[in-house]
Amino acid sequence: MSQKRDAAIVGIHEYPSRDVEGEISPLQIKAESAAKALSDAGLNWSDVDAIYDAGDGGGMSGLNIAEYFGLNPNVIDTTGVGGSSYEFHAAHAKRDIAAGKAKVALLTYGSTAHSNARAIGVGGRGGGSMHPAENMDAFAGMTLIANYAMVAHRHMHQYGTTSEQLAEISVATRYHAMRNPEAVRAMEDLEFLDIRETTINDVVNSRMIADPLHLLECCMISDGGGAVVIASPEVARDCRKPPVWILGSGEATKYPKNGGDITSSAAVQSAPQAFGEAGVTPGEIDIAMIYDSFSITVLTLLEDLGFCKKGEGGAWVSGGRLRFDNPNGPALNTDGGGLSSNHPGMRGIFLLIEAARQLRGESTSQVKDARLAVAHGNGGMLGSRHSAGTIILGRD
Amino acid sequence: MSDPKRPLPRADEFDTRDFWSATKNKEFKYQQCSNCETIIFYSRRHCTGCTEGNLEWKTATGRGTIYTFSVVRQSYHPFFRNQVPYAVAWIDMDEGPRILSNIVGVTDPMNDLKIGQAVTVEWEEHEDLCIPLFKPA
Fold first, then answer.
1. What 3 state SS string does chain A have?
2. Could you give the number of structural domains in chain B?
């Protein structure tokens, strides 16, 4: 294998609370998470020479975030493409480190979406800005979930996918969430009604929110945040934890096209870049950290990443395949995912964090000898304009 | 307090203002490039298919088919919360443009609508423009 090991995740932190009750700001979550991720790596603030920021702490973040952290980085990257921003940031950090522009890159995220009662998840509404595309869409009252529901409906129409098959994704993530104390506490704090492992029947009998998607196919609306530290090989060798190498990356966007196929996503473009660079195939992947805003997001992305053929995802996920203790694998969202652990709006950073935990052997649903992981973020809205960031990770 | 209203497009948005202006006459306009024949929708000032674009306005018949749809059962929007359940759909116009809209004129959208079903535009009149909703053909 001729993998290039240019950069590695060396520090991670997931902010533990999903309900800060309005007592802490997104910027404060970012800073606290950064300090803990640096400490996890055995590094300090003064080691950081590159900052990656999606603007979640406020506008003009490229100007403000370095001051807030008290840093003077050589690289500032404010790529903001929604929930997949952190996969884009990881890709850019690897590129910048390989180019010799930086040695220690800091990625942070903070959100108080739950405290703000922000309209994501089941009741959110898209649109609202003055982009011309939004000026065409806003009158129709498409909720966020309706955007995804229309992908699911078309997927069912084209390929015969069923609600029971989609429910497999919700069931697997809840199975993992129940093993993660932070996820259980999240569901308690957010007042989930029935906190337990679920069945396919539970999912398909939960309340319909936007046909054909049910309540238990929708992500939670939490507070939260986290940080990831990425470092050069020289720095990584001296860090406290084993390095988790970024082996490949891919980026893409997709948007509505006249006559286009809504059942496939920008991952069709980003995945071959990432797998090709890493020199691995989906069949070798142990851990699939896939953005689970809704059940259909995961099904679509698994197909587009190449785990199975387009349209065959429903059958492929059936039989509990995605559970961490199923040898057929891969294990899906072993932290409990956005569906059952943490979704403050832009979940992409948690995909990197849990993938790193697995490759270090630190997950609460640990896959034995996990060697390779994919983290795939989807930003924006799957059924219209969205971004795709694919990162392949491997351990020594 | 007046009843909450449907959110309306801005008539002065640079790229889409000519589309919305034509709706006053209940005309569904779209663009096609006379150089490379690309259909442009939503409307823009530039051709996305070639750099020598020459965009011409055309008028659609208003007929199309449902590409996909969902029935919204829950919304927190002040207007749409009172409309549930309602159908949101991507419509493929016969001429090629794909537009997001609502399907109206059905009593039970869950059972009365199908992907692939023929629909036709149903203009909803407002003060400065009309909104292109759709109903079964």
1. CCCCCCCEEEEEEECCCCCCCCCCCHHHHHHHHHHHHHHHHCCCHHHCCEEECCCCCCCCHHHHHHHHHCCCCCEEECCCECECHHHHHHHHHHHHHHCCCCCEEEEEEEECCCCCCCCCCCCCECCCCCCHHHHHHHHHCCEHHHHHHHHHHHHHHHHCCCHHHHHHHHHHHHHHHCCCHHHHHHHHHCCCCCCCCCCHHHHHCCCEEECCEEHHHECCCCCEEEEEEEECHHHHCCCCCCCEEEEEEEEEEECCCCCCCCCCCCHHHHHHHHHHHHCCCHHHCCEEEECCCEHHHHHHHHHHHCCCCCCCHHHHHCCCCCCCCCCCCCEECCCCHHHHCCCCCCCHHHHHHHHHHHHHCCCCCCCCCCCEEEEEEEEECCCCCEEEEEEEEEEC
2. 1
